[in-house]
Amino acid sequence: MSLQSFYSDKVVLITGASMGIGKELARQVLVAGGKAVITGRNVSRLQAVQREFESYADHLIIHAGDVADYKDNQVLVEKIIAQFGKLDVLINNAGISCFGEVEVLQEDVVRQVVDTNIYGSVFPVMAALPELKKTKGSILFVSSVAGFHGLPGHSTYSLSKMSLKALAQSLRTELLQHGVFAGIAYVGFTENETDKRTISPNGNPEPVPQRPKRLVASREETAVKILNQIRNRKAEEIHGWLGKFTGVMSRLFPSLLHLLIRKNYKKR
Question: In sequence order, what are the residues at sequence separation of 6 or more whose Cβ sits closer than 8 angstroms to the Cβ of residue 13?
């Protein structure tokens, strides 16, 4: 079955989709004939997406809300069922990053990352599960290379992404009898819009550092891999050669990987 055939008439909820990978996922679902539900906290960005996808208006829901708010997730699922009648796929894409050693991080920065990346992954699942069981649907968590090994200077982000593996593994077994798929994608460096931001230790938004082009995948390429992973019900998918290298090293040679990371951090 082709990607287009699979997503035709599927209802797909994508969190954190006002820009970046999430927005591209929504675009590809709509092009395939599916219905996309886009969430985010930035109202102006959501409105811009709504204008851009105007030709798909009948197949689109835009929701301004907070994925870390359980009741808001319940309201969203009710909205989806009222308009589309079902829910087939949940892609937990919402996430924020921060940098700084633990000693210098402000409490609010830690809370923001944990709220969005952890609660903001668990609560949408809790709200969506009753409907996903009806459709024998799919859940996918978007993680990163930081989910393999704790990265110095990015400790809070690493812990939040590592937690997604435990959640995906637990759900995979819990939901097996219900026919619901749960998987995780370890996404590598992906091209960002110019206004993409990370959070500094004191809570200020900062531009995301530019990566060497050889390490950066396009948003289109990343979205296709994620959508194919869901279609194929593949439990794990690692993106990019750097991600695959880190994944293998974390499983087979964790001490050596730790040494490499430590040496690189000392150079910085």
Answer: 37, 39, 76, 77, 80, 87, 89, 90, 91, 124, 128
